[in-house]
Specification:
Radius of gyration: 22 Å
CATH superfamily of the largest domain: PRC-barrel domain
Low-confidence stretches: none
CATH class of the largest domain: Mainly Beta
Strand content: 15-25%
Largest sheet: 6 strands, mixed
CATH architecture of the largest domain: Roll
Helix content: 10-25%
Number of helices: 4
């Protein structure tokens, strides 16, 4: 895969593959001020006929990931950035089976919070308290007219 272009989920070019180290793809980006980022192979799919690697994450996520310092990879920081279980002693998603390195570390509620989505339990509590209308988010509930 060395030399393959890296294309992100938002169809942007993130750089080129310089090497693969274990379960991480090393991507070099930039023209004058080059930097390297590690991307877990769990998020990559090689297309040999196109000499490209397609990622299931956006360019922004790759660009914000921890940079390699002098070629050294902080595997813990990379796993934490991509939300992988190997970064945490007891990930939220840990069940009764074996936890593998590229399992997700947190569930949909935490991902939703990061995206600005209010958890359903909080929304239901606001509706019960009369702080919002169940049909329209963020609109106060107006009690029915009781004068009739």
């Amino acid at each position: 895969m060395e030399g393959y272009d890296v294309i992100t989920s938002d169809q942007s070019k993130a750089g080129q593959v310089t090497r693969v180290e274990g379960d991480l793809l090393i991507v070099e980006s930039g023209h004058l001020r080059k930097s390297e980022h590690a991307v877990p192979l769990a998020f990559a799919h090689a297309e040999d006929d196109e000499r490209a690697v397609r990622l299931t994450v956006s360019k922004e996520i790759v660009d914000q990931s921890p940079k390699l310092e002098n070629g050294d990879i902080d595997r813990q920081a990379v796993a934490a950035h991509y939300g992988l279980a190997e970064a945490f002693e007891e990930p939220e998603t840990e069940g009764y089976g074996e936890t593998v390195a590229d399992d997700p570390a947190w569930g949909s509620e935490i991902e939703g919070r990061q995206a600005g989505v209010q958890p359903a339990t909080e929304e239901r509590a606001q509706i019960r308290k009369g702080e919002s209308d169940p049909g329209v988010r963020g609109r106060p509930l107006i009690p029915p007219d009781t004068d009739s």
